Amino acid sequence: MPLLLCPHCGVGMKEVERRGVLVDVCPQCGGVWLDRGELEKLLAEAREVERAYEAELEAYHRKEGKAYRKKGLMKRVLDLFD
Amino acid sequence: MPLLLCPHCGVGMKEVERRGVLVDVCPQCGGVWLDRGELEKLLAEAREVERAYEAELEAYHRKEGKAYRKKGLMKRVLDLFD
């Protein structure tokens, strides 16, 4: 893919990749661009992190014989991208 | 701020705002643009969610007299934007 230009500054953005997710970052204004596929990967990672926390909390509740109602706190962050 | 053009498609992006965070979304390719300030708000929200989960897990550990070592799972997601 050719170099993407920052929609704000018009300068070429720098590709940054970590854990298989690629974002383009503007070296001038620090804005970031995520294409749909990369955004989905990032959201999936965030959901996975949430699942891990919820699973551990659920285990504690179970141990105490209490029902656990998932918090889904990350939803309020991820909602932005629905 | 004038309408931003998608760096990929060149079409005008649509501003979407939720919980005080504003992103520009390309109606054509679904890519998203976050300026630095909006990205920081989003990262702060994600960190806050993580803090809430960790605090509850820590409370359970304390109840059992065990030390809790923070997991910091969200770090692996947020690291991308360092």
From TrEMBL, chains A, B:
Keywords, in A-Z order: Coiled coil
Pfam families cross-referenced by the UniProt entry: Zn_ribbon_TFIIB
InterPro entries (UniProt xref): TF_Znf
Domain of life: Bacteria
Keyword presence, Coiled coil: yes
Coiled-coil annotated residue ranges, if any: 36-63
Residue ranges occupied by any Transcription factor zinc-finger domain in the UniProt entry: 6-44
Protein name (database record): Zf-TFIIB domain-containing protein
